[in-house]
Amino acid sequence: MSKIITLLILLLLSCTEVRAILDNVQDSKNIDSKKENLIKNIVITGNSKISDSSILQHLNIGKSEYFSLNLEKRILVKLHDSKFFQEVNLKFSNNTIFLNVKENNIVYKVQIEGNKEIDQKKIFPYLKLKNDEYLDHSKITQDLKTIVEIYKSQGFVDTQVSYKILQDKKNSQAAKVIYTINDGIKPKLSGVIFTGNHSFSSEDLENIVINNSPKYLLGSIFSKDNLNKDILYFDQIKLINFYKSFSYANVDVKTTLLYKDKKFFVLHSINEGCKYYFGSIKVKFENNIPDISEDDVLKYSQALYGKDFSQLDIEKSEMQMLEFFNMRGFPNVDIVVENILDEFNHMVDIVFKIKSTFRKYIENIDILNNYQSEDFVIRNNSLLHEGDLYNLNLYNKSLKLLVQSEHNMLLLPSRKIFALPNINKFYSDLIITEQRKQSSQDRKGLSTSVDFNSQNGVGINARLVDSSFLGKSLFLDINGYWGNSLNKYDLSLIKDNFLLTNSKLGFLFDSKRTKNSKESSSLGQELSQAKKDFHHYNERLFKNKIFLQTYKDKISFVWGTYWNILDISILNQKYFFQKDEGKFTDIGLDFDMSYENTKQVFVYNPFIKEGFRTLCNFKASIFSPNIKYLGSAFELFWGKKLFTNIFLKTTAHAGLALPLCDNEIRVFQRFNLGDMSLRGFKEDGVGPYIKDSFDSSSSKIHVGGNYTYNASLEILFDLNFISQKFVITPLGFIDMGSVFGISNADKYPEIIDNFSNRISCGLGARMILPGLGLLEFGYGIPIKYDENNDNTHSFHFNIGLSL
């Protein structure tokens, strides 16, 4: 027995040794296999326009990686998706990847021929394939479909489009793509066909549509730009309402375009059904409405019971109910009419479902833009006052009294009065706006201003305001500058007290540098080169903000979020802007709080106000991956009457920007002063600066600072005793302020940060002239400044034209 156990132990030991030997052999084979698949080199052939480094950067393959089938597939997919190559071959041998590519041709011209009916200028903007792009067959396929759709939208059928690619004889790598179009035919629209109309003749139904002549249909359904299917839908709805007004409650109409014998017809297929009668009539409140019962409302619809069904009668009852609720202070009642068809008895049961919010009272009556009519004159002609229940009838009567008032007509015989009910949860603000009637040369709400600056260029500001009776206003602000400034496009949609969106789009355009530049590591030289050469400095800035604005008494709160996407590409930069810096994403929180207790002293002069206003702003860019900072600003206004026609106005502003997490406050985020903010100095003309090594005529470039403050004191003189037709407000001013501070200043010895207070004084005037609009000019004289480094600019001028 002991011998057997000994043999088993020896056998087990021998198996363990054999297993260890086999494992060592396998490990050595795996090591040899990894060494064989290790990528040591990448060889690219066949490329002429695209460099090896660009291809390697696109593939993002390290030489320490191991080759595999998945890696091979990833390489082929990436190169194919780049659209740069029409053929790619890959081979791996001796630790080397061999890539042989065949590049796509460059499209030096896209041409359209054969188009006789549609101008190619109307086709090119919709094509995907563009000049100076790589040849992409997928884009050609999309363009063929797009051209056919363009012709369809103009009423053409059987349009055929083909293409051909022609190689350039001088350059084998360049090609021309030609789209050949066969316009097809544009059938004539011959008329209207009705089917299923047993109760009414086709002639009766033709009078229901707006105009049934072939000329009208051709001009409306096939408009200049697209196939207007809405015309067909509107005609369908008109026919349905026509039948319902004659008791056909379950009528069905299908409207289509019929193409037959190279002609178009509008086909209305009608299923009339049968006539119906009104059955039971009910009123149902979706929520509790105080002091009003369902029976109080039902009396406006009881006359319907037993009569022939008519959609017009239902609408009349609905309007009477709305007027009833408006008389009792519920201006925003929602009424939904539910029709319940009893097909067996040919009856229609009607249920008026009514939902209302709280009763509305008039909290404030604001009178705006009444430059020639006193507030009390307009208030005396209004039948509504603060604290009254909101009443639609009295509201409409007040409008008529204001427009027809003999006193107001004498003052402004051509003016119009608009009243916009601004409804919130519990109260309604009635806003009465007095507007001058526009002449044939005027456009409502459009104003422009031009700012001339001999150093920076010319700027244009335009604002478009479009108001409607629903209380909505659309503001479009456009600020354009030519020279060393930024173009800005603002779009704000304001509804009631909520500011929903605010978007800005800007581009920086600079004149080309005239002197030869030299590469240098100097910050001043590099930034100078960037500012003077558009090809070396291209900044695209998109600013977006979504926030809410609410009011409580005289305090306003604004809070929300914003995001900026900046794509910056600057060559030869080593400090503020790194070489090919790329995209920055600025995401943060924005909070404003303001308090205002001001009043306009004269109804005709918007420049003179008394009272106090303050604003605090806080920004925190803490969610951004590569721009983190805290920013804060404070503004203050105070106005006071000194004598009968002499007034004092003071304003102050301070701001700071603090970097977080070793980030920097970049040039485009810093504060600047000058021009209107510090009169007597050029825009961006004070604060930290660097030497300009390329332009001897301007020895410094101001780059802004992290901290700023400025204040202004003005004495204004109202000259209304001369004439109220011309608003003229002369003024004298004293301005002071400064910009200073650079984060991580020790890293940038080229920047000279000379902190000192700047002071200027001067004279000016603000005017409103008939037919010309706002005009402002001033002359500022610097009193305390840095003579060697500050850029002074004495005269400024602004004009606003009412078009």
Write the layout of secondary structure elements.
Blueprint: H1 2-37, E1 41-45, H2 52-59, H3 69-81, E2 85-93, E3 96-103, E4 106-113, E5 133-134, H4 137-153, E6 160-167, E7 174-182, E8 188-195, H5 202-206, H6 214-221, H7 229-244, E9 252-260, E10 263-271, E11 277-285, H8 294-298, H9 311-327, E12 334-342, E13 347-355, E14 361-368, H10 375-380, H11 392-404, H12 406-411, E15 416-423, E16 427-435, E17 446-453, E18 457-467, E19 472-483, E20 488-495, E21 498-507, H13 523-532, E22 537-552, E23 555-570, E24 582-602, E25 605-621, E26 629-643, E27 646-659, E28 680-681, E29 689-691, E30 700-702, E31 707-717, E32 727-740, E33 758-769, E34 773-784, E35 792-793, E36 795-802
What is the percentage of strand-forming residues? 35-45%
Q: List unreliable stretches of 5+ residues.
A: 211-227, 405-543, 569-581, 693-698
Question: How many DSSP-defined strands?
Answer: 36
Given helix and strand content, the structural type is alpha+beta
Alpha carbon gap, first and last residue: 119 Å
Sheet of most strands? 16 strands, antiparallel, barrel
Order of neighbouring strands in the sheet with most strands: 17-18-19-20-21-22-23-24-25-26-27-31-32-33-34-36
The overall average pLDDT, rounded, is 69
Kindly identify the CATH topology of the largest domain.
Porin
Residues in helix, %: 10-25%
- Tell me the CATH architecture of the largest domain: Beta Barrel
Number of helices: 13
Radius of gyration: 38 Å
Look at the structure and give the CATH class of the largest domain: Mainly Beta
CATH superfamily of the largest domain: membrane protein fhac: a member of the omp85/tpsb transporter family
Provide the number of structural domains. 6
